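Q: I'm building a small set of examples for a reading group on sequence design. Run inverse folding on the following structure and report the sequence directly after it, with nothing in between.
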C-alpha cells in the first residue's frame, strides 16, 4: 500500500486560512491516502505507518526528526532521501546556496539512506551537474528537483530488484551547509567583488541580498563582478562608465543589474535609476 505522510494543515497565505500542504493536496487529487501527524515519532503515528505496510520510504523536505522507529519501519528497513549536494560536501539545510557561495563548479543529487545524523547516511547513487556562471539558488533548485526525481526513481527500481548498493560517506571530507539567516543576505562591501556576486546569486530570489541605502533596505537580485580596478572606498556608488550602476568593493566593482526597494517591484538598473536617481559618489551599506 502507498501513502503520503506530510505536515498537518497549517494557516497559510495572507488570509492565514488553514489549508493542506501542497503535497497533501496532490496526494488527494491522486487518490493516495494521507497521514498528517503532528509528531511522526509518536506511538499512534508509528502504529498508523506500520499498518500501511510499506516496502520503502522516501523522504523529501519533511521537516521533522525521524526516530529509529520510523527510519527502520519499511520492509526493507530504511528510508531514502535525495540530498541536493555531492555528499559528504554541504551536509545541512541549505546545500544549494552554500555551493554557490563556495564557488563550486558543480553540484548534484546524492540518494542516501536516512540516518540519525543529518545527511550522513550511506549513498546509493550520485548525479552531477555543472553550476552555471549566472545560476541562482532559485534556478538551480528547479534543475536539481528534476534530477532528484529521476535519481529517486532509479534508486527505487534498484531496491525493488535487490540491486542497490550503499557506500559509506567519508566523514573526514564532510562540510556543513547550515540554514542561512537574514543577516547572511547582507552585502559587505569590504569583501571581494566575485564573492559578493556569488552572495547575490545564492540569496536569489529569496530572501534577496541587500544593502542599506538612505535608511532603508535595498535588495540586490542580480549583480556581476567587473574587473576594473578602483581606488574608491568600499561601498562607493558610481554611475556610468563600465556599468550604469556599480559599487566599489575590496578589489574591484560590483555592477548592480536588478534592484528592489522595500514594497516595490524588482527593476533593472536603468529603470531603477529613472525612478530613484542615486547621487554619484554616495555610500551604501
Amino acid at each position: 500500500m502507498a501513502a503520503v505522510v506530510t505536515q498537518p494543515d497549517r494557516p497559510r497565505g495572507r488570509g492565514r486560512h488553514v489549508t493542506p500542504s501542497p503535497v497533501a493536496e496532490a496526494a488527494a487529487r491522486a487518490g493516495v491516502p494521507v497521514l498528517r501527524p503532528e509528531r511522526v515519532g509518536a506511538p499512534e503515528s508509528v502504529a498508523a505507518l506500520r499498518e500501511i505496510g510499506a516496502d520503502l520510504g522516501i523522504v523529501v523536505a519533511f521537516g521533522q526528526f525521524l526516530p529509529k522507529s520510523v527510519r527502520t519501519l519499511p520492509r526493507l528497513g530504511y528510508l531514502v532521501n535525495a540530498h541536493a549536494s555531492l555528499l559528504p560536501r554541504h551536509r545541512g539545510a541549505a546545500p544549494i546556496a552554500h555551493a554557490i557561495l563556495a564557488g563550486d563548479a558543480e553540484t548534484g543529487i546524492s540518494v542516501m539512506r536516512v540516518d540519525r545524523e543529518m545527511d550522513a547516511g550511506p549513498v546509493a547513487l550520485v548525479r552531477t551537474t555543472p553550476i552555471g556562471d549566472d545560476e541562482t539558488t532559485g534556478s538551480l533548485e528547479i534543475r536539481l528537483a528534476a534530477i532528484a526525481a529521476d535519481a529517486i526513481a532509479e534508486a527505487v527500481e534498484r531496491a525493488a530488484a535487490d540491486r542497490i548498493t550503499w557506500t559509506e560517506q567519508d566523514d573526514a571530507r564532510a562540510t556543513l551547509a547550515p540554514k542561512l539567516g537574514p543577516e547572511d543576505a547582507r552585502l559587505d562591501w569590504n569583501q571581494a567583488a566575485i564573492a559578493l556576486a556569488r552572495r547575490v546569486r545564492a540569496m536569489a530570489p529569496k530572501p534577496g541580498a541587500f544593502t542599506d541605502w538612505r535608511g532603508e533596505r535595498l535588495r540586490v537580485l542580480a549583480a556581476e563582478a567587473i574587473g576594473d580596478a578602483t581606488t574608491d572606498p568600499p561601498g562607493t556608488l558610481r554611475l556610468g562608465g563600465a556599468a550604469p550602476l556599480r559599487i566599489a568593493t575590496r578589489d574591484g566593482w560590483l555592477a548592480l543589474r536588478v534592484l528592489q526597494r522595500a514594497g516595490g517591484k524588482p527593476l533593472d538598473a536603468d529603470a531603477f535609476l529613472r525612478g530613484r536617481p542615486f547621487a554619484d559618489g554616495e555610500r551604501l551599506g
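Residues 78-180 form a domain with the Rossmann fold fold (CATH 3.40.50.170).
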